[in-house]
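Q: Convert this sequence to C-alpha cells.
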Amino acid sequence: MANRHPGATPASAPGGERWQIGGWTVEPALNRISDAGTIVQLEPKSMSVLMLLADRPGHVVSREALLEAAWPGLVVGDDSLTQVILKLRKALGDAPQRPAYIETIAKRGYRIVARVRPLPQTPPEPATEALGQALVAGPRGGRRAAALVALGVAGVVIVVAALATIAHEWTTDPLADPPATVGAVASALPTLAIAPFDALGDDPRVDVLARGMTADLLTDLSKLSGLSIVQGAADDTRPPMAEPAARYVVSGSVQRIDERIRLQVHLADARSGEQLWSGRFDRPLAGYFAIQDEVEPALLRTLHAKVSEAELRRLSRRYTRDLEAYGDFQRGQAALLARERDENARARDLYRHAIARDPGFARAYAGLALTYAADYRNRWSADGSAALDRALAMARTAYDMDPDIAETYWVMAFVQVERGRLEEALDTLRTALRLYPSYADGYALAGGIYTYLGRPAQTLPMLRTAMRLDPRAGYLYFLLLGRAYLFLGDLDQARVNLKHALLANPADVELHVYLATLDLAAGDKAAAQWEAEEIRAQSPDFSAGEWLRTYPMTDAAQRATLAQALRAIGLEEHPAIAARR
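A:
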C-alpha cells in the first residue's frame, strides 16, 4: 500500500468506481462524498487518506504508512496528517469520542470502523442509452429510431436544464440583492427567532449557560436548509430596526440547583401567541449537552422542518462536550465584546483554557483569532504584524477544524479585512451566505467592507438585511450604518445611528472618530473638539497617521475626509511628537 499513488482507491477499485462508506457514497475520481442529497467536496489529500484507510476496513493503518503513502517523497510533520483526519471527520459528521467512521488507535494510527463496500458503476441514463441505440439502428430503424433520437435529445435538454439550475444556484451572488434573497428564503421556510434565555438565580455560572444555550441554538439551527433563522425576539421593536419576520419564537430559562441543571424551553406562534411545544429538563450538571441534543430535534419535529439525515447527524455534533471548556469559551465571548485592552487579554486567556481542555474546539480558535486581530487594530501589541499573522493562523485552524460553522467563515473574512484583502473577504462571505442565508453578521461585515471600498450606498441594504435578521443588533451594526450615511451626506441618519451606537459602547475610538467627522461636517467644531477629548481619554497615544495606516479603508476620498477631520481637531499626530517640533 505504501507504494500506491496518492489519491488511489482501494486495490480492487478502478479509479472511476464509487464506494459506500457508512452512510456516505464516495466518488474518489470526483473528490466528493454524498448522502441524502448533501454533497461535500473533499480536498484531494483528504480523499487520498480516506481511501487508504478504506483499503483496509477494520484494520489499523499506522501514521507512518499514511504519511508515506499520501505524501510520497516529502518530509511532513504529523500535524499534516492530523489536520487531514480532522477535515475528514468534519466532512463525515464523525465524532472522535464516539467514532462511526474513523477511529484513533492511540500510539498506532487510525482505522475505518464503518462498513465499506463497492457500488456498481452508475448505469447510463435511459434517454442517453436510447440515443445510443438510435444512432446504431441505421436507416432500417425507421420511426422507432427517430423516436429514440427524439427521446435522447429530450434527455439532453433535461440534463442541460438541470445543470443550468445547479449552476445558477452556485453562481447567484447573495450580496447582489440581499433583501430579495432573504425574502425568498423566509417565504418558503418556517421562520424562527431565538429569544435570549433567562438565567434564573444569582449564580454567574448560570448566565454563562443561558448565553451558551441561546448562541448554540442560533448557530446550530442556522445551518439547516429547512429553516430560516431570525436572530432576536419577535417582539423586539427598538428603533431604527425593522420588525422581525419570524413566525415562531423559541424562549426559555436556565436554572442551577446544586449540581443539577433545570432547563425550560417554549416554542410559540408569534402571530397567535399559541404555545406549540414546551419541554422541561432536570438533569445532573454533566447532562447539559444531552439536553441540547434533545431540544433541537424536538423543535424541528414540531415545526415539520424538512431536514436531511446528513444535517441531523451534523446537528448532533457538539462543538465541545467539555463543560469547563464550554464555560471558558462563553466567558471569553463576553470579554471579547467589551473591546477593551484588558478584557481582550482576558478573553485570550479564556479561549486558551478552553483549547487546553478540548484541543478540537474550533470556535475557541476562532475567538482566539479575533483577540489577535484586535491587538493589531487597536495597536495593543508591540508587533502588530506578528499579531495579524497569528490571527490568520488561528482563523485558518478554526476553519480547517470545522468548516460547517458560519462563524469560521466570518472570522476568516474579518482577518482578511484587517490584512487589506477586501475582495477576498467578500468572496469568503459570499460562500458563507450561500451556505447560511440567514447569517446576519455575514451581511453586516459585507456592508462594512463596501464602505471601506468607497461604495457606502451598497452598505445600506446589507445592514438593513442584517438588522432584519438580528433585531437585537449590537452597536457595531449602528456604527457601520452611521458611517455609511455620513459618506453619503445624510447627516441626520448618520447622527441617529452613531448616537445609538454610542449608547451601547461609549468606549469605541472609531465611533468617536466618526462622530467628530460628523460634527465638523455639520459645522459644530466645539462638539467635534469634545469628541477629540474622548478619543484622547480612550487612547492617550492616539495618532491620526498611525490610526489611518492600519485602517482598512481603501477609498482615497473617504480617507482624506477622515484625515482632514482629525487634523482639524488636533489629532493629526501624537502630542509628544508635536511637542518636539
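The domain at 186-315 is CATH 3.40.50.10070 (Rossmann fold).
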